Structures are given as C-alpha cells and as structure tokens.
Amino acid sequence: MRKFVFNLNSTAEYFKKKLLLNTLVSIVSIVVGMIFFYKEKIVINPTSQAFSSLLVNNTIVCLLIIVMGVLSFGFLGNFVLIANSVVLGRIIIGVFNLYGIVPLLHYIAPHFIFEISALLIATAISQETNKFFYNFRHQDIKIIRIKYNLVASITMFVLLVIAALIESNL
Asked: How far apart are CA 165 and CA 153, in angstroms?
C-alpha cells in the first residue's frame, strides 16, 4: 500500500503541469458554455440511472479522449474535454436559470469532482504522445513513463467508479 501511495505522489508530480493546464482549459470551457447559453433554461427530470450504464458511458468518454489523443499526438483529446466542459457549462447555467442553485448542489456537484478529475487524467494521458513528436524534432529526449500512465489509468477508473456510484444513488 505504501508503494502505491508513493506511486500516486510520483504520478501526480509527473502529470502536474498537464493536469493544471487541462484544469484551466476545462474551467474556461465551462465558463464559455455558460456565456454562450446564458439565457437558456433546461428543464430537469431527475431519474436514477443504473450504475453500470453510467460507468460504461463515462469510461467510453475517457477512452475516447485517450484514443483521440494518441491518434493525434494529444490534439483531439483536448477537443473532447472542451466539448464536454462546454456542455457542462450549458447544463449549469440552464438549470440555474430555471431552478436556482439547489439542484446543482444536489445532482451535479456530488459526482462532478470525481468525474471531471477522471476526464482531466484521461486528457493528460492522451497528451503523452506529444513526447513522440517532440523527440523526433529535438535532441533532448522526453521519456514517457509507462508506470505513471498505468497508475493514472487505474486512478482514472477508480474515480469513474466513485462518480458512477454517487450519480446512480442520487
């Protein structure tokens, strides 16, 4: 267990710059979604979804981010994160305009932290392939640490499980 915690700390340090950049991109995208759709009102009809369907859907989004990023040297994975964040901004402002803050705190906030963290980790993993492109054009080599990518992938999946558990029980 101690070695795994050490790997989590090392993994966080390894991905720190990418996670910070992805967090900033996500926040800006959420704000952009809120600005573009500031007059929209979204009617909510809360229904409980099954844990498995939530987990599968969120895992597919994360895998899409990773695969698109790998195929495009990290470029297209960012677009999936941006699109997801703009949609989230639209939902936040649309629900807020019609119902206020209470449904946001009750339905979105409990699982939001875990789900967005998993998406940020997936985007950071997808950006690892930038190093291949960089290494072809430069003398100093950037090393891709597979063990950190594996730890990040496991952490991402655990976060998705937690988010799906919370969301399925709302």
From this structure: 18
pTM of the model as a whole = 0.86
| DSSP letter, residue 27 | H
Q: How far is 146 from 99, CA to CA, in rounded Å?
A: 46
User: How many CB atoms lie under 10 A from the CB of residue 28?
Assistant: 14
Distance CA 100, CA 29 (A): 21
Neighbours of 81 (CB within 10 A): 24
- Is the distance from CB of 61 to CB of 80 less than 8 angstroms? yes
Ranges of H-type helices in 37-145: 51-71, 75-99, 102-103, 109-126, 130-137
The model's confidence at residue 3, banded by pLDDT at 50, 70 and 90, is: low
- Residue 36 pLDDT level (bands cut at 50, 70, 90): very high
Task: Quote the CA–CA distance of 60 and 56 in Å, as a whole number.
Answer: 6
What number of residues does the chain have?
A: 170
- What 3-state DSSP class applies to 107? helix
